[in-house]
Design a protein that fits this description.
This protein has 235 residues and is an alpha+beta fold. It has 5 helices and 14 strands. It is 20% helix and 34% strand. Helix 1 (16-27) runs parallel beside helix 5.
Length: 235
């Protein structure tokens, strides 16, 4: 029986709930929960509590960090590349200098509109459920205050649909998809999130994270060790 934390390097496509289900099978243990969520498209750090540590998830420290890729000229209904395309505006002449001057507008405490396809509840219903049925308008989605401590440019790829690579450090509740969408609207061509990797979450980083393959191998060799239940907790 394990009691403590495991940081999983979540693969693409599957949900955070799927990650919990996978770990229950690997560890042969039912009492497992995750700290925060990640969109199915996203990869990276997903803190998992095992055994008695599940009651301590709410005490994990704040803060998240991501490496994101934003594609300009494409707008989708989910604000990421997995969604239905709403507009297509090639912008091969767009430059990094034109984009970079807007990034400072996203630093500090800002208000943002969460994506329509998100797990936020409105009148007791998940937004994504309402969006799938066409029962939600932008004006119905409540704005939220979030805090972004840093946005750093990592790279720029020219093309018909140029892409910006950025590192973002932020507080809980921040939607990187919303940043991509809003940045595209400011520039005038639209934009969508084309990839997302979480590099830090609530006291855990990629260096301390394990893939499911690594967990399985450690279980076979009976050498899996979980982090202590008081790992980085803020009471």
């Amino acid at each position: 029986m394990f009691n403590g934390f495991i940081s999983i390097d979540k693969p693409p496509i599957i949900t955070a709930h799927d990650c919990v289900s996978n770990l229950r099978k690997l560890l042969k243990q039912k009492k497992i929960g995750h700290g925060g969520t990640l969109d199915p498209m996203a990869t990276g750090v997903l803190p998992i509590a095992v055994g008695n540590a599940t009651r301590l998830l709410r005490f994990l420290p704040e803060g998240k960090a991501y490496n994101a890729k934003i594609r300009f000229g494409i707008v989708t209904n989910t604000d990421d590349i997995t969604g239905e395309m709403l507009s297509d505006r090639p912008c091969p002449n767009l430059t990094l200098d034109e984009v970079a001057k807007y990034l400072t507008l996203f630093q500090g405490k800002i208000t943002q509109r969460p994506p329509a396809f998100s797990a936020i509840q409105v009148n007791g219903k998940r937004l994504y459920e309402l969006a799938r049925r066409g029962e939600i308008n932008e004006s119905d989605i409540p704005m939220r205050e979030v805090e972004i401590t840093e946005i750093k440019v990592l790279g720029w790829t020219e093309g018909v649909y140029p892409e910006l690579d950025v590192a973002i450090s932020c507080g809980s509740g921040t939607y990187i998809r919303s940043i991509a969408r809003d940045l595209g609207e400011m520039i005038g061509y639209g934009a969508t999130l084309s990839s997302l990797r979480r590099t830090y979450s609530n006291g855990f980083d990629l260096e301390s994270s394990l893939t499911f393959e690594q967990v399985a191998e450690l279980m076979r060799s009976q050498s899996l060790k979980v982090l202590a239940p008081d790992h980085g907790l803020h009471f």
